[in-house]
Fold:
Amino acid sequence: MFSKFEPTPEDPIIKLVGLFKKDPRPNKIDVGIGVFKDNDGNTPIMESVRLAETRIHETQTTKAYVGLAGDENFNQTMIDLIFGEHDSKDRIRAVQTPGGCGALRLLSDMLFRIASERTIWGSDPTWGNHYPVFRQAGFNVESYPYLNRETKTVKEDEMLSKLSQLGQNDIVLLHGCCHNPSGAELSPSAWEEVADLAAKNGFFPYVDLAYQGFGNSLDQDAQGIRTLMDKVESMVIAASCSKNFGLYRERVGCALMVGKTPGEADLARSNILTVARSSYSMPPDHGAGLVNLIMNTPSLRASWEAELTEMRNRILSLRKQASDVLREKTNSERWDFIEHHRGMFSLLVLSEEQTNALMHEHAVYAVAGGRINIAGLRNDEQLNAFADALISVTS
Ligand code: LMR
Structure:
């Protein structure tokens, strides 16, 4: 039976994890997969999560099914976390999913039921798994201009000009914050313009929000979505708790649907639940239970917010240090953009030859194109070694 298959290439980010593990060099540096690390190179369980786990362990009385939409308190909590005090939250429905990627897949399958003729437009570049997920759902995909590869900033004029040509036959994927892979953020005024164009021309916004709290603050990182909410009739959001709660392996995510009216949002919800039932039936409960308990227990929530702030500050501080070290070593401002980016990633725009040289000659593991996870840099020593390696392969 299976001999009919052609072998398929491994996902480049997942492949890099395996290559890094196998590398015996003691000084190896992992700036590959998007996993937060502390100054010792560990990805610890957050204290708030640990406390919540203990509480759940002591009080949970059953492992019976929860339901197709998962935990409804978790779903409401996610609506509140993303939309804050927004006054038309009655138009939003949320469904718990297995991770942010599960939300992307479910939303795509749901949208394909009514919008199979539409094209999904992603930023150039975008996360390597976006297009495979959309294509698997059946969509045609295209890209709009995003990153200026010289300045490493967003080409907002070109992007907006492309989006102004899109309309009723299009779906536009936007990164809510902390753009993956580039690290370059849309300005608040560009969000306003995107929202105006969507409202005027009818393209449908589809937002991936995987890093809320890793950029500037929980509220600021959701501002783009809130701007869209003010102006468009409907949209969807795929949210993840992998990074901001450090719950990677627990697979905690949420698919959110904004309808023109509450009734329209109910229709989206019933359709996405049908898709969930025929995909995996019910989402895993443990991680969402933790998020719900943390967010609705004031002491745990305060502890989580403090830990998240510490993580964000480490990223911001590493960004500054990396820029400073590179400026000093090269006597140029070439790498200053690292400080201005937000989230875990910066795309350094390296050739395949350069990323291979980083890996083979310097034991530095970066994703294709030179995407680095800045939180992967452990200490001053690693920062220096990374800077030296980068200078060596780029000069
Ligand atoms: C990443 O971009 O490294 C993360 O989102 C992990 C993944 O699944 O690719």
Notes: The longest helix spans residues 298-330.
